[in-house]
Task: structure prediction
Amino acid sequence: MYAVWLYFGLSSSIGLLAQLFLLVEYGYGSPWILVNVAVVASMAFFYASAKRDATITTPDHIEIRALFGGTEQIAWEDIEEIETRGSTKKAQAVVIHIPGRHISLPHVNSRDIDSFPEEVQLLRELWESRRGPDWTPPPHGEGTATS
Result:
C-alpha cells in the first residue's frame, strides 16, 4: 500500500511542476494546461476516495463509509448474512441487510487483503458474537439471502 501513496505523491509533484512550467513558458494560452489540470484533479479525487472509503466495526454496529454515499451504520442484529461474491481473484465481501439490501464492504476484497477468506471468517465470527444470543434469521421472504 505504501507504493500506491508514493506513486501518487511523485505523480502529483511531476504534474504540478509540469503545470508550473507550462504557465511560465506559454502563459494561459497552452491547451496542455487543461489536460494537466484534469490529470492532477483526477489523481486528487482517487486519493480522496481511497482515504474516505472504509469498513469499520464497532461493538454495536458495522460502519460503511463511501466517498459519495455517505456513512451507513448497520446494527449487528440487522444483518442477515455476511458472504463473499465473485471469483477467487476478484472476491468481495457483502453484507445482506435484513430489508434485503446487498451492501459491498469497501476494501474488504481479495485484491486488497492477502488473507481474504480468513478475514471474512473473522468478520462472520464477530457478527455471530455481537448480534445477540436470541438472534434468529428472518422468515423466508423478508430478506434476499434465502430467496
User: Anything to note?
Assistant: The CA atoms of residues 122 and 128 lie 10 Å apart. Residues 141-147 have pLDDT under 50 and may be disordered. The chain has two domains: 2-52, 54-130. The chain has three helices and six strands.
